[in-house]
UniProtKB/TrEMBL annotation:
Keyword Ubl conjugation: no
Assembly behavior: Heterotrimer of A, B and C subunits.
Protein name as it appears in the record: Aspartyl/glutamyl-tRNA(Asn/Gln) amidotransferase subunit C
EC number: 6.3.5.-
Organism in which the protein naturally occurs: Psychromarinibacter halotolerans
Database matches in Pfam families: GatC (PF02686)
Organism placement in taxonomy: Bacteria, Pseudomonadati, Pseudomonadota, Alphaproteobacteria, Rhodobacterales
Reactions that this protein is recorded to catalyse: L-aspartyl-tRNA(Asn) + L-glutamine + ATP + H2O = L-asparaginyl-tRNA(Asn) + L-glutamate + ADP + phosphate + 2 H(+); L-glutamyl-tRNA(Gln) + L-glutamine + ATP + H2O = L-glutaminyl-tRNA(Gln) + L-glutamate + ADP + phosphate + H(+)
Entries under InterPro entries matching the protein: Asp/Glu-ADT_sf_sub_c, GatC
Length: 95
């Protein structure tokens, strides 16, 4: 596949990139170089290769999912305008 000046201008317009007319041939050549690299990747035989998430085999660190209050109830309630019996107190809004 070969990219010409018109296609390079169209891609630049779609990407909302302002490219001067004299820079279009260089941009088209860069696109052609990138497509050449992609075509080289298509030549690699990947049959039987399992997809990887990372190049190093790692397991995610896991911890027990335990719910706690953080043991900082007094510090959390210290800045509350009104706290009663260990909870935030808010005005009644329903009549």
């Amino acid at each position: 596949m070969s990219i010409d000046k018109a296609t390079a201008a169209h891609v630049a317009k779609l990407a909302r990139i302002k490219v001067e007319d004299d820079a279009l041939p260089a941009l088209a050549e860069e696109f052609n170089t990138i497509l050449g690299f992609i075509e080289q990747l298509n030549e690699v035989d990947v049959d039987g290769v399992e997809p990887m998430v990372s190049v190093t085999p790692m397991r995610l660190k896991r911890r027990e999912d335990a719910v706690t209050d953080g043991n900082i109830q007094k510090e959390v309630l210290a800045n509350a305008p009104d706290a009663r019996e260990g909870f935030f107190a808010v005005p009644k809004v329903v009549e």
